[in-house]
Amino acid sequence: MNLEDRVIIITGASSGIGEATAKKLSKHGASVVLMARSKDKLEKLRDTITNNGGKAIAVSGDVTKSDDFKNAVSDTVKAYGKVDGLINNAGLMPLSFVEKLKTDEWDKMVDVNIKGVLNGVSAVLPELINNEGGDIINISSMAAHAYFPGGAVYCATKSAVKMFSEGLRQELAPKYGINVTSIEPGAVATNLTSTITDEDIKEKISGMQEMKTLESEDIANAIYYALTQPKHVNINDVFIVPSEQK
Ligand code: NDP
């Protein structure tokens, strides 16, 4: 149980990578704080974890609202007395070609994928400093390494997350003992494509469904690896893709 006594907030915990990560970390002793908008799903996951002997609380909230994040942090401190880590995982991927001008979807991606991460860091940082160290793990993407069709805005948001992570690491790790990791997955079998409204993109990505993708548990394992290193070891980036993905 090598995450015993570690208190970790996970955003986007109501499905996919966030849910698998909550299960994995709690299985190894962490107290997990589940944050997303879907209260029912969070409560169900909390019950599953606690019924299996783990520790979890559910805090519904929207990462685009800085007050929701502040509440999540104060609920965490009330329940467990401290915060040791934040996994900024919540994200959206409504891919579309730029010429379609789906500007509402561009705004949503900027708000959730970038501003959501900034809100998380600003809410949690005073606690991590107070705690004399901790971990911030940001879920970027393979999209930070290469453009793919319909991904101009999404790839830009994930590039921002990757570079923000590097800035955070350089500013926080040496001074405060706060280690920072950017995780950059290729295709993972989750609900992420469910927000796509551009029919041309839906057709294009249908081919990808034949590939053997990663599972959410593969990313949870990478997160676990980053979190279980000795304090003097910072895992900067984990670029992890399906063997079949080019
Ligand atoms: P899912 O769609 O399964 O999960 C997305 C999660 O984000 C949900 O729990 C959703 O919860 C949450 N979320 C969305 N908007 C908000 C919001 N405003 N406030 C709080 N939570 C929100 O997809 P994944 O598990 O795949 O996605 C997790 C992360 O992994 C994302 O950042 C994604 O970009 C990244 N990623 C995924 C890849 C993939 O192939 N699947 C590849 C590379 C990166 P709710 O709706 O309840 O709020």
Automatic annotation (TrEMBL):
Residue ranges constituting the Ketoreductase domain according to the UniProt record: 6-186
Pfam family, one: adh_short
Record SUPFAM superfamilies: NAD(P)-binding Rossmann-fold domains
GO MF entries: oxidoreductase activity, acting on the CH-OH group of donors, NAD or NADP as acceptor
InterPro entries with a match to the protein in the record: KR_dom, NAD(P)-bd_dom_sf, Sc_DH/Rdtase_CS, SDR_fam
Keywords, ordered alphabetically: Oxidoreductase
Family, per entry: Belongs to the short-chain dehydrogenases/reductases (SDR) family.
Protein name: NADP-dependent 3-hydroxy acid dehydrogenase YdfG
